[in-house]
Every structure is written in C-alpha cells, then in structure tokens.
Amino acid sequence: xxxxxxxxxxxxxxxxxxxxxxxxxxxxxxxxxxxxxxxxxxxxxxxxxxxxxxxxxxxxxxxxxxxxxxxxxxxxxxxxxxxxxxxxxxxxxxxxxxxxxxxxxxxxxxxxxxxxxxxxxxxxxxxxxxxxxxxxxxxxxxxxxxxxxxxxxxxxxxxxxxxxxxxxxxxxxxxxxxxxxxxxxxxxxxxxxxxxxxxxxxxxxxxxxxxxxxxxxxxxxxxxxxxxxxxxxxxxxxxxxxxxxxxxxxxxxxxxxxxxxxxxxxxxxxxxxxxxxxxxxxxxxxxxxxxxxxxxxxxxxxxxxxxxxxxxxxxxxxxxxxxxxxxxxxxxxxxxxxxxxxxxxxxxxxxxxxxxxxxxxxxxxxxxxxxxxxxxxxxxxxxxxxxxxxxxxxxxxxxxxxxxxxxx
Amino acid sequence: xxxxxxxxxxxxxxxxxxxxxxxxxxxxxxxxxxxxxxxxxxxxxxxxxxxxxxxxxxxxxxxxxxxxxxxxxxxxxxxxxxxxxxxxxxxxxxxxxxxxxxxxxxxxxxxxxxxxxxxxxxxxxxxxxxxxxxxxxxxxxxxxxxxxxxxxxxxxxxxxxxxxxxxxxxxxxxxxxxxxxxxxxxxxxxxxxxxxxxxxxxxxxxxxxxxxxxxxxxxxxxxxxxxxxxxxxxxxxxxxxxxxxxxxxxxxxxxxxxxxxxxxxxxxxxx
Lengths: 408, 271
Fold this sequence. Notes:
heterodimer; A: alpha/beta; Rossmann fold; Arc Repressor Mutant, subunit A; 6-stranded mixed β-sheet; 4-stranded mixed β-sheet; 18 helices; 13 strands; B: alpha+beta; SH3 type barrels; Alpha-Beta Plaits; 5-stranded antiparallel β-sheet; 3-stranded antiparallel β-sheet; 10 helices; 55% helix; 17% strand; elongated
C-alpha cells in the first residue's frame, strides 16, 4: 500500500466504508438548525408560498433547466466502481483470513445509497455469486426450496438486497429469520449481505439474533460532495464550467485557479445545506444537484475544444436552496402508512403494497398518484418507491409521527 | 371579625364608578382571553404532530387558571385594600355564600382546580368515568368534556373526582395499550398460534414498535382465549389498530387451518 501523502492525511478518502458505529450524518449548524426548525414550524402552521428574494443576480425567469443531454454530461449517473474498490479495501482483512470468525458481513445503506449496485459491482469484480431474492409469493409461502437451493452451493456469495427477502406481513418474516439464522451460523458459507437501513431497523425488531458486523458507506460531507461533483466533469471536456449560485453569484463548487486568491470571490453555502438536507446520502445529493442546475438561454455549455474555449468559462447557475427545497406539501396522516411501508421494503409493486396495509377507506392507487404528483414517490418499472428529492421531507414527517426510522 | 366585615362593607360602598368600569373591563378581558385560548390552542394542537399534540392541549386549563387568578387579583385590588384581614373577611363571606347556595357547583370548581394539580386527566387522554369512555376534549371550569368513539359529547362534573374511579388509558402519553381478542377451538398448536399472533402485531403498520407486544393465553370452557396486546402509534388510532389486528389475525389463523371457537358447536358437543 502506498504511503499516504500529506494531502491524503488531511482529506479522508471520498469513498470510505466504516463500522456502523462510526457512521456520521453531516451535522447541521446550530444556526441552520434553528433557522430550518423555525421556518418548518411556520410553514407547517401557516403554509404560504415562498417569497422571492429581492433583486437576485439571475431571476428564475432568466434561467432555464439544463437540457437533458447536457445534464447527462455534467452530472452523469454515479459510477459505483470506486465505492466497490473501497469496499474491497475494507474487507481485505476478512477476505484474507481462511477461516474467519465471521461467516458473513452486513453492509447497510440508507435509501438511494447505491448499496445494491455497489455490492453487485463488487461481486462481479471478485467473481462471487450474486444471490437473487425470493419472490413475494415465495416469502409468503415460507418457501424452503429457495434457501435450500442457496445452501447447496457453498461458493462465496453476495446477497445485495436483504430488504427483498421479507414482507411486513404475518407470514412474511419467517423466511428472513431462517436466512439470518443460517447466514450468521455459517451454514450458508461465506458471504456479504447488503440491506437497506429502514429494512434493517425493522428486521432487528423481528429477529433477535446477535448483532452481526455491520459496515456502511460513510456519508458525504460538503467537501466530499464538491469533490464528487467535480469528478463528474473532470477530464470530460466540461471542466471549463463554473458553478455559481443564481441569486448571489457565489461559487458553489471551488472557483477556477485563476480566481483563487481574489478576495472578491465568495463561496456559497449551498453544498453545506445540501449535505445536511440529503443526510450525506450520495443518491439523494446527486438527484437534488441535477435538479438544481440552470443555464441562461444564450449560454452554451458545450465541450471546450480549444484554448480559447477554456478561457471563455461557461457558467452553470445553481438555483438557490429555497427554490428547490422539497417540503412535504399536504402530507396527511393516511399517507404515512404507505410511505413507511415503501421505505421498509425499499419499493414495492402496488398489488403487494395493498396486502401490507391495513383496511383503508381510501384507495392506495389514488394515494400513490397524489404523492407522485407531489414528487414524493416515483415509479421504476412496476415498482413504487420514495423519490430521492422527497426522502428527506418524508423521513422527517414519519419521525414526527412516531414511526420507526433508520439510524442514518 | 365584625370590624373587618364593617371595613369591607365601607370599602364596597365607596367603590367608584371608574373602579366598576375597570372591573368590568378586566372581567371582559379575562373572558376574551379564556375564549381565545380555548379556541386557538386546540386549533394549534391539531396542526401539531402526535408527540407535540398532547403537550400543547395540556396548556389550555393551565392558561385558563392563570388568567382567572390574575383577573381575580386585579379585581380584588380595585374592591378592597388587599390586607390580610380584608382578604380573609371577603373570602370567608364569599365561601359561606357559595357553600350554602351552590354547594355542588363550588365543589366542582374546587375539584377542577385539584384536577389541574393531580392531573387525573388531561386534554387528549382517553378516560372512562362512570361507564363513559372517550377522549378528553376540554377541561372546563365545572366539567370535563369527553367525546366517545360514537361521537357523543359527555360532560362529566369534576365533582366525580372525589368519589369515583377514573380510568385513564394513556395518562398524558402516546402509549395506549389495545387488546384484540381471539377465541379458538381448543384443538390447536398453542405455541404456533402464539408466534403467529405476535407476528400479526409486529407487522401492523399502526404499531408503536418500541413498546412491548404481549400474547396472553387462557383456557376457557368453550375454547382457548388469546389476548393480543400492543400499542398503536397514536391513541386516536386505537379502534383502527384493534380492527387491523383482528382482521389480519383472523386471516392468519384461518390460513393456517386453526378453527375459531363456536359457542353452539362446542356446547353441542358437550354431554
């Protein structure tokens, strides 16, 4: 392993797996906590539309959303390979030991943390078998064949989504309990289990086995987000772009080298607020970042092909936080159960969701359609899941209503 | 004492018109403040989430007592010189009059003040008094107002506090235990049913998961009686919660081939 340089010692690696006890949610400053708390209380008691700030540098009308083709270049879908490499480093000690005391390791991640993709990528790199979860019918039938088939093959395995192996139903827990008993006892061989943090919070109530070793991808702080967002454009020909906040012109990502040392250059606190709001979860920060980017109609955000292009820096405007902050508009008590159920299972198809909810006088489909229109849930193929932008507000809503929440 | 009463009479006769206007204004102001708190605070509590709702509601009677005491002190200042003798004389005379004329009414008022101190019920609590069960909606000067599950408003005099048992199901907290009853045919695997009913409660979306779940089994002449005990997220969801436990419990039991107890059938089999 290379000796870490001075810079490496100062800044922790971008992708870092830590024991769950060392996981840190980006801390909100007292000032921001008070401000957020008071404004949330005010909006809750007397909901009113946000007042625009006076004389912004760029008004909302002067800007438009960045075209889809360009946003795919500026903020492409996350590449999870560096995270898979970080996981490999973390598990090196466990992998090198022939007979480890621990048969399996658990990797827990909050919603939109990319856990399933990372573990699948890691399994591909290592050549480990990826175990597919049982179907809802198999779970409810407590199908012994699924687990028996798995245990027959003693090769190393990865189960990327434990949350797909149970249902919050009277007959939906036994299979997951047996799986956890067998996995922790080592009768399934060595493997890695990935699980959503909400599902894990629930399963810990349903399964009384000893606490297994738990790892989590460390949350992103503002500096981590800045590095990550910059890495998207680095080397892609788009690194001549600067990112400035639309209302005050402050730099959101670090300013170009030519502006370093210029005392008139100010940096925005957008990323700090984004890190707090997204709780440092990469997928959520990524989605909000994409939604926040704007461009002026006369601006061209094309690749720089010549030195002249490099000198003529294009500006991507970042919408002020108050414009993009997703509150929980009109969330009612009857919305809580479907939202919580979706979170506990990291998404469900409508027919299964119906089976897991109590008798209701309102239609679940109609409720989901309302929540989709509000941007709080979304559809992926046939499944309903909580949208990345809606997650922070939903989490707060459920926590206030006394629902079980995750520790992330 | 007679000197004191004489002085009070002298004071009362010398009350100026200005003082009377002031007293009327104080009384009107106090009434307005009480009305406002009784309307605004519950409205505010309705907008709060579960855990803050009960605390906000509990402010109503305390604020009202504060307003009444302040108003009384201000009025007394304008009627008599607030010396010890004058106060004893006035309150004695007032007490005597009230004691004879409106004994029960006065008793309810005093019990209302005691209720604020002892807290046998608070707004938002689910109580049972004299067979009436419901949620405490408001605590008035003389009565406590509860709303039954059938949406009937019952006014119970605070006087009941002196000599009746008051059953408070949640006692100012969010924790209200609910019980769902299941009566099963005696021939079944009790351990399996016990586990099944536990999971029925654990998987309810209305469950307060950090509170314990209990399954009590008792053998009866007609079959086996299971009592599934758990806590809903919010006391107001208690009936929906019991319904959810009952419906899903019954489905799970029937799905596993467990028979429900049937009085005539069991009775018909007995010699």
